[in-house]
Structure formats: structure tokens, C-alpha cells
Amino acid sequence: MDTQSVAARILVVDDYGDLLETIGELVAEAGYDVTLTTSGRKALRMHQARPFDVIVTDIFMPELDGLELILALRQSASPVRIVAMSSGGAHIKGLDRDEYLNVARIHGADRTLAKPIDSGALVAAIRELLSRESCGDDGGDAGPAEDRS
Length: 149
Description:
Elements: H1 3-7, E1 9-13, H2 17-29, E2 33-37, H3 40-49, E3 54-58, H4 66-75, E4 81-86, H5 97-107, E5 111-114, H6 119-134, E6 146-147
Parallel strand pairs: 1-2, 1-3, 3-4, 4-5, 5-6
Helix pairs in contact: 3-4
């Protein structure tokens, strides 16, 4: 575990409590300082009060959903790195999971992951985003990593 991972602050946002806890444990086991919340609105307030290095957010949540959270973060010019995740939402406007993940990328997510989450892919995405930040690389036009398993 490197010093960067110990110091990095990660916020995980998902309205499904069991999954939130599981993802939080995975990220904490990788050596990161993890904070959990079930609300996009709370996540935004928490980030504004004390910025996080990476925010991992679900797309479908009540109140302020993941897409709205991503937009609010990008409109505030926050340098936070964002990983968006989704299991779908085919019941909403007939779009499938990949289409929602694409919308998240368009709105400013740095990486997208399909649920069920592959723990290795999530930790790798966080490490990559933190590595880019420490190197001063804003990610440029590199395509987002996506787990399709």
C-alpha cells in the first residue's frame, strides 16, 4: 500500500445500503480513507465542505441522482475524479445500462463501471485516476475504462 492510497479520500454514493457497505469495505481494504452516503444531495454537500479525491457514485438514486451529482460537480469546476456505476435502468425511458453509462461519461464521469461491480476493476480505476491526478494529467481524451463483466 503506498502513501498516496492511505491519504486519498474516497466518497462512495449508493442508495442501496448493502451494496454501499460492500463497496466501502472493498475500497477501505485497498487502503483508502472511505466515506459512505446514500444520497447524492448529501454527497454534494459533503464534497463542498471538504473535497474528496474520488467520488464513486451510482446513477439511479432518489433526490439528486448520480447524473445530477456529476453535473453539479463539473459545473462547480471541482477537480474531483468521478467513477459512475450502474446496473441498468431499463425500466426508465427504455435505455439500457450501457446507454446510461455513456450518458454519465458525457456528463463528466472519468470512468464508468457496470454492476455487479468487479472489485479489481473498481480499485484499478481509483488507482489510475489518483495516479493521473498526482502526475498532473487531467486524463485528456483517453477513453474511460469500463467493466462489462
